[in-house]
Structure formats: C-alpha cells, structure tokens
C-alpha cells in the first residue's frame, strides 16, 4: 500500500483492485453496455476475491482459485454465475492484465492458461403444440424457443393497430436488435423508398438511456443495408 501511494496505480506495487480501477477509467472509449459489463465484473467478483493482492504477486493459482470459487458459491446477487458468465469475468481480468503488460508494469499474465469451464450454448427449439401445452400446464419451458410462422403471424395480426406496429414488424422479419429499433429516427427513414437505415442504437446503461453507434463497425459494413418497410399488413 505504501508503494501504491508513492508510485500510483500504474506501478506493480499497487494492488490488483487499484490497477483494475485505473484500467477501467483509462481504457479507450467503450460503448456503455461493454463498459457496464466490465465494471460489474470488477465490482462484484474481481475486487472482492482478488482486489487486495499486490499486482506483482498475483499468480495463476489465485486466478484458478477465483474461478473455482465462482463455480461453487453464489455470487453477491444470490445466484451462482453461469459458466458463460465465469468465462466473461475471466476475459475481463485477462484483458486488464494484458494492458498492464503493454504498459510494462508486469512481465507475464497470470490469467493465461486458467482452467475455464466450457459453457454450452442452448439449442433453440420451436414452440410446438406439445411444448406449448407443457409450458401452460406445468410451467416447463425450453431455455431458448422461437415462434412458428403461424404464431408470429398471429402476433403481428394482434398488434396491427398498435402505434409501434412497424417496430414489431421489423423486429420479427428483418432482424434488427432492440437497441437499433429504439434508435431509428425519421432522418434515417426514407418513407418514399420504404427503406430505413441503421445508423445508431439506444441502450440502457447505469440507469440511463444512452445513444451510441451500432454494435460494431463490421456489423453492417461501410454502408448499412436498408430494409423494406411493410407496404401492407402481414
């Protein structure tokens, strides 16, 4: 702690918690959602478990101990983190330590080679008649389920008079993300050609709604493709 006071959080004499806080505030501009994810990992998991360890003394055994704890104990939110969440927490730590290596604060990354879980992505299934009946009778439902064409058509028919019908139509049939739908502006919509263009998105972060660019520059390429608005109800 004396070394940290003298040299600041940029030196190897600081604690991991101090280094993580410095890294988050000095990191290149991030979209609000990723920044909130990094901040949550640091606040809820990394600092409580490893924050008091001196950065230069952090070892692979400490990182593996963190991962074992995350896999076996409930988090501060009361639930055990999923394997996918554990992988993302480790990725946050590894990225921060890689930044410390580039700054020549530490020579190696103790997060490399950690024993990570292997999360399985849920396989999407269709809401068949049988699955729908089990859900209505017993509350049993798949992890990821999608509507049939008939169910989607029934939904669109039911919301045909809703003020946001165009948004529901685009979400259902053109694949826009929630933030992209919320970020559409009149200036991005060519009503004569019936073509909107994705130029921004609106996201919820830290209790506020913020406006930012689409998820990534490579998502749409240099010229985002237009989508046709519905001429007539489905």
Explained architecture:
The protein has 234 residues and is mainly alpha-helical. It folds into two domains: 2-102, DNA polymerase, domain 1; 159-234, no CATH class. 47% of the residues lie in helices and 8% in strands. The strands form three sheets. The chain has a two-stranded parallel sheet with strand order 1-2. Strand 1 (125-126), helix 6 and strand 2 (145-146) form a beta-alpha-beta unit. Helix 2 packs antiparallel against helix 3, helix 2 packs across helix 5 (83-102) and helix 3 (32-50) crosses helix 5. The N and C termini lie far apart (66 Å).
Widest sheet: strand order?
1-2
Total strand count, please? 6
Order of helices and strands: HHHHHEHEHHHEEEEH
List the domain count as a whole number: 2
Through-space gap between termini? 66 Å
| Average pLDDT | 83
The proportion of residues forming helix, as a percent range, comes to 40-55%
Quote the beta fraction: 5-15%
By secondary-structure content and strand pairing, the structural class works out as mainly alpha
Shape: flat
Major sheet size, sense and barrel closure: 2 strands, parallel
Question: Might you state the CATH topology name of the largest domain?
Answer: DNA polymerase, domain 1
Can you tell me the CATH architecture of the largest domain?
Orthogonal Bundle
The radius of gyration is: 23 Å
Total helical segments: 10
Please identify the top-level CATH class of the largest domain: Mainly Alpha
Unreliable sequence segments: 218-227
């Amino acid at each position: 702690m004396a070394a940290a006071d003298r040299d600041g959080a940029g030196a190897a004499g600081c604690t991991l918690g101090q280094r993580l806080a410095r890294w988050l505030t000095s990191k290149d501009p991030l979209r609000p959602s990723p920044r909130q994810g990094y901040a949550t990992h640091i606040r809820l998991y990394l600092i409580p478990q490893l924050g008091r360890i001196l950065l230069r003394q952090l070892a692979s055994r400490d990182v593996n101990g963190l991962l074992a704890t995350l896999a076996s104990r409930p988090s501060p939110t009361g639930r055990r983190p999923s394997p996918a969440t554990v992988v993302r927490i480790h990725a946050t730590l590894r990225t921060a330590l890689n930044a410390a290596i580039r700054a020549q604060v530490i020579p190696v990354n103790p997060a490399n080679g950690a024993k990570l879980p292997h999360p399985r992505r849920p396989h999407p299934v269709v809401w068949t008649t049988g699955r729908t009946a089990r859900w209505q009778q017993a509350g049993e439902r798949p992890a990821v389920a999608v509507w049939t064409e008939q169910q989607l058509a029934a939904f669109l028919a039911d919301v045909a008079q809703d003020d946001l019908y165009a948004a529901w139509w685009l979400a259902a049939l053109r694949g826009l993300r929630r933030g992209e739908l919320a970020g559409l502006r009149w200036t991005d919509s060519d009503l004569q050609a019936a073509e909107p263009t994705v130029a921004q998105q609106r996201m919820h972060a830290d209790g506020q709604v913020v406006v930012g660019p689409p998820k990534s520059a490579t998502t749409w390429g240099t010229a985002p493709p237009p989508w046709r608005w519905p001429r007539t109800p489905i």
